[in-house]
Amino acid sequence: MKTIRFPHPLVLLVGFILLACLLSYVLPTGVFSRHPDAATGRDVVVAGSYHRVPATPVSPLQAIVDIPKGMVDAASVIFLVFLAGGAFTVVDQTGALRSGVDWLLRRFQGREAVVIPIISVLFATMGALENMQEEIVPLIPVLLILMRRIGYPALTAAAVSIGSAAVGAAFSPLNPFQVGIAQKLAQLPLLSGGGFRLAFLVVALAIWIAGTVRYALRHRVQPETSAAADPAALAEGRNHGLVLLLLFAAFAFFAYGVLKLGWDFEQMAALFFGLGVVAGLIGGLGFTGTAEGFLAGFRDIAFSALLIGFARAIFVVLEQGQIVDTIVNALSAPLAGLPVTLSALGMMGVHTALHLPVPSVSGQAVLTMPLLVPLSDLIGLSRQVTVLAYQYGAGLCELITPTNGALMAIVAACGVRFDQWWKFVLPLYLLLLALGATAVMVGIAVGL
């Protein structure tokens, strides 16, 4: 039997852009009224305000023009990926990364399988804390070196990073970009229901790690030996330990900046650029060698970075066609006539379906929660469970949707076809979705 084979990522995303263009001719156009919300600092929809507006179909030519517009919209993310990717290439060319990987493998010799749980927990923690996604793209070359030295397939690098981060974010008790915004819009205390969410997060992460370890062990190959450093690129006597110390200090400052200083992508990109420059000079590459390292990194990461812009263009087309609100209204309206439990599970389904045209979890919360919270009050469903349905439906969809630019970029950076990723991820996704549905039903039963 032939397996499903996805087209090239670029072909896939352009196909979705053209599909969005076609839908702008087929679907009725309509919008919700919106008002600024002081709690979230965003414009949120007004429940019951959906109304038809004159059609604004997006022509095929305009859809093509929307590709560079999508790149402009995602410019801060794209340049973060470029600068961080260049920086990590510089660090790699100093030889410090390979030296660090060799040291790590010596420490875990004979127990290499524990590397997956350790790295997965780290990325899941960052996903739970700050919805880490695009920031992972430049780290993939580092993870690929580690996985290849152990003998694990390249797909494992994506699984322990973007996969673990997405699971951590979806089940998080405190992710400000998912549960935080949703709880504000539902007028619930921040961090309320945290213990309940944390219990299911532990189970979800255990499922993901077990699946990843099983895949890695079943597909393990002969480990790559440590490659000798290029004598033309590496100066003698460099201090690998100092470069690695600088790298860890940069990561610590990165976490502090994101969590405490409210950094955006521009500040992150600046930090990584500074890391690359200082690491290159400390590592003995000199100014010219450091510059050449950045250029090599730019070349290697270019395709992955630009995929983020192509993915963003899909939403730009849907927004220009004024059909996003139409899709939201059509999916959410039937929920009012369902029993409480079925309505809650239906909300999970709605959020799953909506995440294809609305790939931003925070944007989806702003769009849907003002509609679903009054509905939940009307049918007697707790607002906390309504937030759970949003978290699990939208958050877990980050693992599978091709409109998630970060996912597409990371899978491409690993050299893995998207159909290969789907074959790995779908069984785990369905298990996690079932766990989320169980959490929703338990939440209803215990009166969360």
From TrEMBL:
Matches recorded under PANTHER family: BASIC AMINO ACID ANTIPORTER YFCC-RELATED
Name listed for the protein in its UniProt record: YfcC family protein
Membrane topology: Multi-pass membrane protein
UniProt-annotated location(s): Cell membrane
Domain of life: Bacteria
Regions that span the bilayer: 74-91, 112-130, 150-174, 195-217, 241-259, 271-289, 301-318, 330-349, 393-418, 424-446
Keyword Transmembrane helix recorded: yes
InterPro entries recorded: C4_dicarb_anaerob_car-like, DASS-Related_Transporters
Principal subcellular localisation of the protein: membrane
Species of provenance: Hymenobacter yonginensis
Keywords from the UniProt entry: Cell membrane, Membrane, Transmembrane, Transmembrane helix
